[in-house]
Write a structure and sequence with these properties.
Layout (H helix, E strand, L loop, with lengths): L2 H14 L8 H15 L5 H19 L2 H9 L3 H17 L8 E3 L4 H26 L7 H20 L3 H47 L3 E3 L7 H19 L6 H6 L8 E2 L1 H35 L8 H6 L8 E7 L6 H15 L3 E5 L8 H11 L5 E7 L6 H15 L4 E5 L1 H7 L3 H14 L7 E4 L4 E2 L2 H9 L8
Parallel strand pairs: 1-2, 4-5, 4-6, 6-7, 7-8
Antiparallel strand pairs: 2-3, 8-9
Helix pairs in contact: 1-3, 1-8, 2-3, 4-8, 5-8, 6-11, 7-8, 8-11, 9-11, 14-15
């Protein structure tokens, strides 16, 4: 799947989870059937899902013009990178590459600092690579890389903040999350290219000013002797001197080049040696690193890492369309009314577009969590979604309700969906302020466990927040923004 395909899929998905006007369930069904007819019912998700998204976009854009702007705002803005690289070259040109006077201190030109800094960067790259191999995962991007990546994301962030459409806000949030790795790769391209052009600009400035001014080379030091300076220059400039056929001065000659002893000598040969060293140590390696990062970013854009094995995708596949969602519900100190069970079935079919096959276990009581978890372990199979159900009027407690959810999570090998039924509370108190207080208490209990409690009124049936309900069943055990 390409970057463009992934952007289309995420935009359509934002209008379908949950269904948001002007998009309708009829539109979603039409897009699925048309895509199946074009590429065949036996096509895999890597072909079906992108094609379906393209077809859906053609209809969606007619009714929601703002979606076109969202696609444009989330696209790659290469000009940002070019501006940064161009500014780096300008900074290199206008910077004083030699110093405030027409004297070149052989021990302290800005070019020497530039070389040292890049060597530090290369060392950090090697260290990062070693850490990645040891941890077998990606290390945290460096500060500069994060900064450039954030600049590339800024357009999407600003657009998300301005959007009034809930679906478009969901799209931008999802896109930024999925594209962060690609932005990081592109940030690496910009950083390496900018470092190369900064050095190139400094060298261009050096030679241009050298045509009009007579620069003198020498050195001064309070602590270093001529012999020490000879060794330092041999390490830094020795390879360039050999390539250019230039003999570095001995200690006696270097002693005569002290500015305290005279005006120094013409700086031309020193400028050539420093220039060749900068090209070899900074410009060429940075261009090579930029090319590698660009290749990785291009490969990522051609094979975008968007998962095609979640509930949303499975629901769209023809071989799984209509396949019931297998649910195992385990209440805790709650005798679930028959009407509530029907309400849960209606919720699943309405929001997930598929029927529910529900197994309702007997209510678990305090102190019996281990036995209930054992039953969950014996009954669960395949893609069964384990649901822990609580009544809202109960007082949430870490030692009882929290321990019960932890036992279910251990038995099911993943965190369960936590449903809190508000039906009895609403029938008694309606939408009183106590409702919000109760919700906050349940949220506070499960949030540290990384679980978003789903509040539902199974007598109607309806959900307090449809987006959280969708997220709970597609990504069980993970928090979703309210």
């Amino acid at each position: 799947m390409t970057e463009s395909d992934a952007r289309a899929v995420l935009l359509v998905r934002a209008f379908e989870e949950p269904i948001t006007a002007p998009w309708t369930a009829t539109d979603a069904t039409w897009a699925t059937h048309d895509a199946q007819r074009e590429i065949g019912e036996n096509a895999g998700p890597e072909r079906l899902i992108p094609r379906r998204a393209r077809l859906a976009l053609q209809r969606l854009l007619k009714h929601e013009p703002a979606a076109a702007g969202a696609l444009s705002a989330s696209a790659a803005h290469a000009w940002v990178g070019w501006v940064i690289v161009g500014l780096a070259f300008v900074v290199g040109v206008i910077a004083d590459a030699i110093g405030p006077s027409q004297r070149t201190n052989l021990l302290a030109p800005p070019l020497l600092a530039l070389i040292a800094w890049n060597l530090v960067v290369y060392a950090s790259l090697v260290t990062g690579r070693v850490m990645r191999l040891r941890r077998r995962n990606d290390v945290t991007p460096r500060a500069g890389q994060r900064l450039i990546a954030r600049l590339m994301e800024s357009a999407a962030h600003r657009r998300a903040q301005r959007e009034t459409s809930p679906a478009l806000r969901r799209f931008f949030t999802s896109w930024i999350t999925h594209a962060r790795r690609m932005y990081s790769r592109r940030a690496s391209v910009v950083l390496h290219a900018a470092a190369a052009t900064l050095a190139a600009g400094a060298l261009a400035s050096l030679y241009m000013r050298g045509l009009a001014f007579d620069f003198r080379a020498g050195w001064d030091s309070t602590f270093l002797s001529a012999e020490t300076v000879q060794r330092v220059l041999g390490i830094v400039l020795g390879p360039a001197a050999q390539l250019l056929g230039i003999d570095l001065p001995n200690a006696t000659r270097l002693e005569a080049l002290r500015f305290a002893n005279g005006p120094g000598e013409n700086a031309a040969r020193w400028i050539h040696m420093y220039a060749l060293t900068v090209v070899a140590v900074v410009v060429l390696p940075r261009l090579a690193l930029a090319a590698r990062a660009a290749w990785l970013a291009h490969a990522l854009a051609k094979d975008f890492p968007l998962t095609l094995d979640d509930a949303y995708v499975r629901r769209l596949l023809p071989q799984q369309a209509g396949e019931p969602l297998v649910m195992q519900v385990q209440p805790f100190s709650y005798q679930v009314p028959r009407e509530a069970l029907k309400g849960l079935e209606a919720l699943v079919e309405r929001h997930l577009g598929r029927p529910a096959a529900i197994t309702m276990a007997a209510s678990c009581v305090e102190g019996d969590e281990a036995r209930c978890a054992t039953e969950v372990r014996s009954l669960r199979h395949g893609r069964t979604v384990v649901v822990a159900m609580f009544p809202l009027p109960a007082t949430p407690e870490r030692g009882t309700h929290g321990r019960f959810v932890e036992a279910l999570a251990e038995a099911a090998e993943r965190a369960p969906v936590v449903l809190v039924d508000e039906s009895a509370f609403r029938q008694r108190f309606g939408d009183s302020p106590r409702l919000a207080e109760r919700r906050n208490a349940w949220r506070s209990l499960f949030a540290p466990m990384g679980i978003a409690a789903v509040f539902v009124d199974l007598a109607l049936p309806q959900a307090e927040n449809e987006a959280i309900l969708m997220h709970a069943f597609t990504e069980p055990g993970t928090l979703a923004a309210p």
